[in-house]
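Long-time lurker. I teach an intro course on protein structure, and each term I like to show students one example going from raw sequence to a predicted 3D structure in token notation. This year I'd like something fresh instead of my usual example. Would anyone be willing to generate the tokens for the chain below so I can use it in lecture? Attribution to the forum is fine with me.
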Amino acid sequence: MNGFLYVALGGAIGASLRHGAGLAAVRLGLSGWPWATFFVNLLGSLLMGLLIGFLAFRGEALGGGQGTRLFLATGLLGGFTTFSAFSLEIAQFVQKDEWTRAIAYAGLSVLLGLALVLAGMIIMRKVLA
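-- Reply from a regular --
Happy to contribute to a lecture. Here you go:
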């Protein structure tokens, strides 16, 4: 199968899951903070760390080679997480002159996202090494 098809299929699933997270946040009445985007980006960071850590130690066990990697990392997790919505939400805070929220959201998202990628990689290293 063409690499673009793997990415497209994974991306469709990931974007659908992200949409579901947005609907869940609305149904739960979560407001005042972009909870859905915050959640999916942090969860996606952890999952990416776990995936990369797994691939580093047991990539051959995954099967499917490059197609599986394209489906999971680029497609599924790329479609699930969202930099554009994250950027828009920061811009909206700035436009409302809510600088503290903008800085907190940007800083927490980046720092926690990085920490979760690293945590996922460390977890896989400890579990699989």
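Some talking points for your students: The first helix runs from residue 3 to 27. The radius of gyration is 16 Å.
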